[in-house]
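[09:14] KT: can someone run the structure on this one? pasting the chain below
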Amino acid sequence: TSSLNKLGLAVSTGRVVDFRAREHLRQTPEQETVPLIYPCHFLNGFVEWPVESGKKPNAIMSSSKTSGLLVEAGFYVLTKRFSSKEQLRRVMAAVYDPTRIDARLVGFENHLNYFHKQGSGLPADLAKGLALYLNSTIVDQYFRLFSGHTQVNATDLRKMPYPTHEQLVRLGSHFKERMPDQETIDAIIEKECLNCEQ
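[09:31] RB: done, structure tokens below
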């Protein structure tokens, strides 16, 4: 029954276009670098960083040239902009938890969308509740109703209906150390959001 506007939230596309920022990217963290997050950093509902074995760079230089590409560290909800047809859900979300990654700034790569509050992070429970909701079957079904493609744009996410602030916070209390499995997510959504609507 809510919307991102009503919740006071916004969603944007990651600012770091890697081929344009190539000279500033680093495979492993160094001095003067900050985390650079790609879809490959998603694990169990959180952002796991760095990923040493991956092909993607893990860091971006923090300088006057890159300052416009970075955001202040905080709780953010990230979604992948592209999914393959084989993947069970179109919308796949994870939480960037600043208590797990020691960095003042962070860069989100362009293959991600990120939910924020006026450019800054969200309250922890709200972020976790939003990620849980976005990973639900009901969101996947809704998304497929109006979008036939595998791309998930920020515009698509702005159009979707969302639970109320109170419901999202309640959802967040069910998301602890890792994202619950699909059946559990859907049962939580039904209990916290759907039963009270009937």
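[09:33] KT: thanks! Residues 167 and 193 are 6 Å apart (CA to CA).
[09:34] RB: yep, looked fine to me
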